[in-house]
Task: inverse folding
C-alpha cells in the first residue's frame, strides 16, 4: 500500500478521534463502541492543552518536559538489574535484526535458486505449479517454526540426574533434533521467594556470553508461567563430589591434573568478569573425555544476596566463643567420611555448605577474584588429604573452624606405615598454603599459580590434550551411570535433606508484592527448532561450529 | 532534547565505545550499522511473493510482541503505579483496559497493570493453538485478521507509552536507537497491511509522518 493512503486520511488538528470500535473476539455480542481510548479533554487542540508543539518544519518534536532525570531515576539506572536488562535488550535487537535480515536474504536466494532450477528443466505448467506449491510450503514451514516457542513438552525426559534446592536436573532429549542435554528446571516462585532470580539470570548471562570447553555450554533457555529452564550440554562423567565419594584420596599427579583444569575453568569465569565465591567439588564435572568442566554459576556475581550474607555473618558470630576442637588427621578423615555417608549431598541444599568459602566472603567483607583461589586450595587439600581443611563433626564445628582458620589449618600427618603415602609432599603443601591464606598474601593471578613448583610438570597450554587420569566408560550418549539413580530409593535417600529444605522454602509465606513479567525478561535464549544444530556429548573443544557463533536470543 | 524522537538516530545505531572489537556484540553491531541504515526495513515488511498473508502477519505479531517485551522490560523499574498511575500515550491519550474476562468494562489501570494485562492477553493468544496454530499444516482461524488487528492496535499503545513517558530513561539506558528501529519497523508493517486505524495512531502522528517522509525520500 502506498503511503499516500495514510497521508490522505483526515488529520486536521480540529478533529478529535471519536470513540473507537473495539473488536471483541470472544463474545457473540455485536461490535460496539468502546471508550477504551479516552480523550482527556473535549477542548480540542487549544494552546492550553497542547503538549506537542511543532518547533520546526523538519518534523522533530519537542517534548513538553525536557526535564533532567531525577535522583531516583539516576539511582535506578545504576542498579545491576536495570543495567543488565538494557544490555540484554541491546544484544537482543542486534541479534534480531541480524537474524531477520539474514532470513530475508536467504529467502531471496532460495527463491532465485528455485526459479533458475525450474527454468532450466523445461517443466510442464502442471509440474511447475506442483513444484512451486511444494517450495512455498517449505518456506511456510520455516516461517511457522520461527514463531514456535520452545516448550518443555518438546523434550523427552530420560532420567533425573540432579536435585537441588530450587529444582531438578534431568537428562533429556530434544525430540525434534535428537539432541541430548541436561535440562535444569527451576520454580519461579521458589526463586522469587529466596531472592535468587538474579542469580539465575547471571548464570544464564555467563552461559550465553562464552563458548569455551571449560564451561558447560548453554543450548537453550526458556520459560513457562511457573518454571524457567536451562538446557545445557550433558556432561556424562558426573561431578567431583561423586568422584571423591568413590575415590577418597587422589594420587598427587591426578590431583595436579584436576586442580590445574579447575583453575583453567575458573580463569575463564574470571575473564568474563565474574567471581564464583562458592566453588566446591559439586561445581566441577567430568566430561565424556575425562576433562573438567565448570558448571552452576548461579552464585557468581558481584554480591551475595543480603539475606544470605546476614545469615553467614550470624553463624560466624554465634561460634565466636567456641573453642577449636583438636582432632588428629586420622580422626578428621574418618569423621568426614562418616558425615559424607550420612549426608552425601549436603552442599546441594539451598543453605549449602561453607566448607570451601573464603573468610572474607563469610564475613560479608569486600573480596576479589582470590576468593575462588581459596576455594580451589580447599579442594586441592581435600583431593590430597581425603577431607576438606575445615570440616568438623557438626556444622557448628565447621563454622568454628572457619572462624579460627589460621589455627585449624594444619598439614595432615599420618604416622602409621600403611598411611604414609597419604602425607602431602612439601611442594604440594606449599601450594595449598599459598591458596589457603590471608587475602593479603594469597595467590590471585593465574601466573602465580602456573609458576608454582607444584605445577612444574603441567603444560598449561595443552591441558585439554593431556590424557586424563580417568575416562568415563559410557555405554551411550545417554548413559547416566556416573550420576545418582533417582529411581532408586537408596540413592534418593541421599537427597532427603535437600528435599526437606526445599519443602521448608515452599512453605515460606509468599512475599507480599507480586512479581511482574518484567523480572524474567531476557531470559529466553537459543533458537527453537532447527539452527542450533545437534551437539554431542561434552567432547572437549569440538563444539566450535561456525553457525553457533551468533546464536539467537529469542 | 533537540530531537524528542531522535529521528536522526532511527536509521543508524549509535556506535558504543564500550563494545570490544571481536566480540559477538561487536560483530552484530557492525552488521546492524551496515544494514539498517538503508531502505531495508521498508523492504523487510513486504509480503514475500507467494507467501500466505496470515503466516506473515502471525510471525510479525510474535516478533513485535517480543520487541515490546524486551523494550518495556528495560523500564519496568521506572514504570510504577506511582509514576504512571494511568496508562497513557502523552497527557492527551489515556487508555482503558477491557478484555471481556477479568475486566468486563473498560477499566482505568495504572500503566504497569495495563501493560501487564495487555502483554498477558497477547501471550495467551500467541500460545493458543486455535488462534496461532503451530503445528505444520493447521490453518489459521477465519477471523484471524481481526485478531491480528486487535493485537497490533493494542501493541501500539505500549510504544505510545514508552515514547511519551519513558523516552528519557530509554535514552539514558542507551537503547533509544533500538526503540526507534523497532517502532519504525512496526509502523511500516501496520502501514503496509493497513492493520491499525489512523485515529489510533494519532499519539505518535509526528513520528509516523516523519517515518513516511523519510521512507518516501529513501525509495525515490
Result:
Amino acid at each position: 500500500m502506498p503511503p499516500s493512503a495514510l497521508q490522505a486520511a483526515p488529520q486536521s488538528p480540529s478533529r478529535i478521534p471519536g470513540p473507537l470500535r473495539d473488536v471483541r473476539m470472544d463474545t457473540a455480542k455485536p461490535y460496539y463502541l468502546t471508550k477504551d481510548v479516552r480523550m482527556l479533554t473535549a477542548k480540542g487542540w487549544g494552546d492550553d492543552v497542547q503538549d506537542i508543539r511543532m518547533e520546526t518544519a523538519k518534523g522533530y518534536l519537542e517534548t513538553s518536559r525536557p526535564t533532567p532525570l531525577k535522583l531516583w531515576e539516576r539511582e535506578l539506572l545504576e542498579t545491576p538489574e536495570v543495567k543488565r536488562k538494557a544490555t540484554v535488550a541491546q544484544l537482543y535487537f542486534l541479534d534480531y535484526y541480524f537474524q531477520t535480515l539474514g532470513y530475508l536474504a536467504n529467502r531471496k536466494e532460495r527463491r532465485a535458486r528455485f526459479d533458475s532450477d525450474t527454468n532450466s528443466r523445461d517443466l510442464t505448467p502442471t509440474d511447475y505449479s506442483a513444484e512451486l506449491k511444494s517450495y512455498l510450503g517449505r518456506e511456510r514451514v520455516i516461517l511457522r517454526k520461527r514463531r514456535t516457542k520452545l516448550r518443555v513438552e518438546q523434550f523427552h525426559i530420560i532420567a533425573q540426574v540432579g536435585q537441588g534446592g530450587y529444582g531438578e536436573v534431568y537428562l533429556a532429549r530434544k525430540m525434534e533434533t535428537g539432541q541430548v542435554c541436561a535440562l535444569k528446571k527451576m520454580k519461579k516462585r521458589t526463586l522469587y521467594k529466596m531472592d535468587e532470580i538474579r542469580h539465575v539470570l547471571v548464570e544464564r548471562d555467563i552461559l550465553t556470553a562464552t563458548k569455551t570447553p571449560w564451561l558447560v555450554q548453554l543450548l537453550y533457555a526458556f520459560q513457562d508461567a511457573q518454571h524457567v529452564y536451562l538446557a545445557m550440554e550433558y556432561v556424562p562423567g558426573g561431578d567431583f563430589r561423586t568422584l571423591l565419594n568413590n575415590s577418597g584420596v587422589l594420587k598427587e599427579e591426578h590431583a595436579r591434573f584436576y586442580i590445574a583444569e579447575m583453575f583453567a575453568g575458573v580463569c575463564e569465569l574470571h575473564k568474563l568478569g565474574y567471581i564464583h565465591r562458592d566453588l566446591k567439588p559439586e561445581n566441577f564435572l567430568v566430561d565424556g573425555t575425562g576433562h573438567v568442566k565448570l558448571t552452576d554459576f548461579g552464585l557468581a556475581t558481584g554480591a551475595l544476596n543480603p539475606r544470605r550474607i546476614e545469615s553467614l555473618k550470624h553463624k560466624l558470630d554465634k561460634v565466636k566463643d567456641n573453642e577449636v576442637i583438636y582432632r588428629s588427621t586420622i580422626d578428621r578423615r574418618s569423621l568426614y567420611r562418616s558425615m559424607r555417608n550420612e549426608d552425601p549431598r549436603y552442599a546441594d541444599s539451598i543453605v549449602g555448605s561453607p566448607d570451601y568459602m573464603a573468610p572474607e566472603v563469610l564475613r560479608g567483607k569486600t573480596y576479589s577474584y582470590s576468593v575462588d583461589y581459596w576455594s580451589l586450595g580447599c579442594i586441592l587439600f581435600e583431593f590430597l588429604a581425603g577431607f576438606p581443611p575445615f570440616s568438623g563433626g557438626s556444622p557448628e564445628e565447621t563454622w568454628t573452624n572457619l572462624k579460627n582458620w589460621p589455627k585449624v589449618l594444619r598439614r595432615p600427618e599420618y604416622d602409621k606405615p600403611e598411611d604414609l603415602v597419604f602425607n602431602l609432599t612439601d611442594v604440594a603443601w606449599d601450594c595449598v598454603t599459598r591458596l589457603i591464606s590471608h587475602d593479603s598474601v594469597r595467590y590471585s593471578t593465574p601466573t602465580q599459580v602456573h609458576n608454582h613448583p607444584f605445577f612444574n610438570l603441567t603444560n598449561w597450554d595443552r591441558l585439554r590434550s593431556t590424557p586424563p587420569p580417568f575416562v568415563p566408560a559410557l555405554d551411550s550418549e545417554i548413559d547416566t551411570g556416573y550420576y545418582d539413580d533417582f529411581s532408586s530409593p537408596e540413592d534418593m535417600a541421599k537427597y532427603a535433606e535437600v528435599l526437606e529444605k526445599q519443602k521448608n522454602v515452599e512453605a515460606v509465606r509468599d512475599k507480599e508484592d507480586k512479581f511482574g513479567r518484567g523480572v524474567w525478561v531476557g531470559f529466553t535464549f537459543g533458537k527453537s527448532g532447527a539452527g542450533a544444530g545437534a551437539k554431542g556429548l561434552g567432547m572437549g573443544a569440538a563444539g566450535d561450529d561456525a553457525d553457533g557463533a551468533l546464536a539467537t536470543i529469542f | 532534547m533537540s530531537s524528542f524522537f531522535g529521528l536522526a538516530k532511527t536509521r543508524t545505531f549509535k556506535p558504543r565505545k564500550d563494545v570490544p572489537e571481536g566480540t559477538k556484540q561487536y560483530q552484530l553491531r557492525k552488521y546492524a550499522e551496515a544494514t539498517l541504515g538503508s531502505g531495508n526495513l521498508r523492504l523487510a515488511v513486504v509480503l514475500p511473493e507467494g507467501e500466505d498473508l496470515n503466516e506473515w502477519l502471525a510471525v510479525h505479531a510474535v516478533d513485535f510482541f517480543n520487541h515490546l517485551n524486551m523494550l518495556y522490560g528495560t523500564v519496568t523499574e521506572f514504570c510504577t503505579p506511582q509514576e504512571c498511575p494511568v496508562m497513557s500515550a502523552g497527557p492527551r491519550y489515556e487508555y482503558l483496559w477491557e478484555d471481556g474476562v477479568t475486566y468486563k468494562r473498560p477499566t482505568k489501570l495504572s500503566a504497569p497493570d495495563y501493560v501487564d494485562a495487555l502483554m498477558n492477553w497477547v501471550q495467551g493468544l500467541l500460545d493458543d493453538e486455535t488462534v496461532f496454530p503451530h503445528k505444520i499444516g493447521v490453518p489459521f482461524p477465519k477471523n484471524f485478521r481481526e485478531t491480528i488487528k486487535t493485537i497490533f492496535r493494542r501493541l501500539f499503545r505500549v510504544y505510545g507509552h514508552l515514547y511519551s513517558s519513558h523516552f528519557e530513561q530509554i535514552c539514558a539506558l542507551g537503547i533509544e536507537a533500538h526503540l526507534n528501529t523497532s517502532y519504525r519497523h512496526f509502523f511500516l508493517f501496520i502501514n503496509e497491511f493497513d492493520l491499525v486505524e489512523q485515529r489510533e495512531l494519532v499519539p505518535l502522528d509526528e513520528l509516523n509522518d516523519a517515518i513516511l517522509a523519510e521512507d518516501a525520500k529513501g525509495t525515490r
Summary: DSSP finds 18 helices and twelve strands in chain A.
